[in-house]
Amino acid sequence: AIDKADRAPKDELDEEELVKAVKPLIEEGGRILQEANGVIRGLDPDGRIAANAKHKTASREASSEEYRLADLLKELTGHVTETIENAKKKIADMPHAKKELNPLWGLLSEPLFQILAAVGLLLSGVLGLVGKLLDGLGLGGLVHNLLGGLGITKVLDNLGLGTILSPLTGSKKKK
Predict the structure, then answer these.
(1) Which residue in 69, 165, 68 sits closest to 122, CA to CA?
(2) How far is CA 93 from CA 13, 23, 87, 96, in A?
(3) Which of 21, 81, 134, 158 is found 20 to 30 A from 148 (Cα to Cα)?
(4) How far is CA 112 from its chain centroid?
(5) pLDDT-based confidence at 128, cuts 50/70/90?
(6) What are the pLDDT digits (tens) for 35-69?
(7) Sequence-ordered list of residues with C-beta below 8 angstroms from that of 60, at least 6 positions apart, any chain
């Protein structure tokens, strides 16, 4: 819908129709990511996986499953961040759509961040692998800027957790 609106002549563009078409899609994407986050958090109710991950991280071991998970998280992060950034660019000259849709991008990015944090807590070495994969695609900075734009990095800084995203975004925070 956004691509079609982007190609439409200005005099034929109905921004309200665009908002009506895209808003439910963003909301549904957010629900799907929230559901995935809940499933991931439910995988380790007693903390055993997290304890095992801490042990493996200390010994610098990563299983083939952890590498596969890192690759899948890289794909998910890449798709979500590229979708958000591309959509923002395409609606930049559509004032009504921009006003209505820009606040909704958090519905996609916040659960993505929660998924990355949950997996990172379960398998702490995985975030570093995801970060390396994203940097290889040139997306490390994009993810950092997206999270910063949503205020997530500032919240983590205020909680004293500012360095938790460093492996993912490639940024080097000073303590």
Answers:
(1) 69
(2) 11, 18, 11, 9
(3) 21
(4) 4
(5) low
(6) 888 887 787 777 776 666 666 655 556 667 667 77
(7) 125
Crossing angle of helices 140-149 and 106-122, in 10° steps, is 120
- Per residue in 140-160, pLDDT (tens digit) is 666 666 666 655 566 556 655
Per residue, the 3-state secondary structure of the chain, as one string, reads CHHHHHHCCHHHCCHHHHHHHHHHHHHHHHHHHHHHHHHHHHCCCCCHHHHHHHHHHHCCCCCHHHHHHHHHHHHHHHHHHHHHHHHHHHCCCCHHHHHHHHHHHHHHHHHHHHHHHHHHHHCHHHHHHHHHHHHHCCCHHHHHHHHHHCCHHHHHHHCCCHHHHHHHHCCCCCC
Q: What is the pLDDT of residue 96?
A: 93
Distance in angstroms (rounded) separating the CA atoms of residues 148 and 95: 23
- Give residue 126's pLDDT: 59
Contact in structure between 130 and 70 (CB atoms under 8 Å)? yes
CA-based R_g, the chain, Å = 18
Residue 114's nearest CA partner among 172, 36, 166, 170 is 36
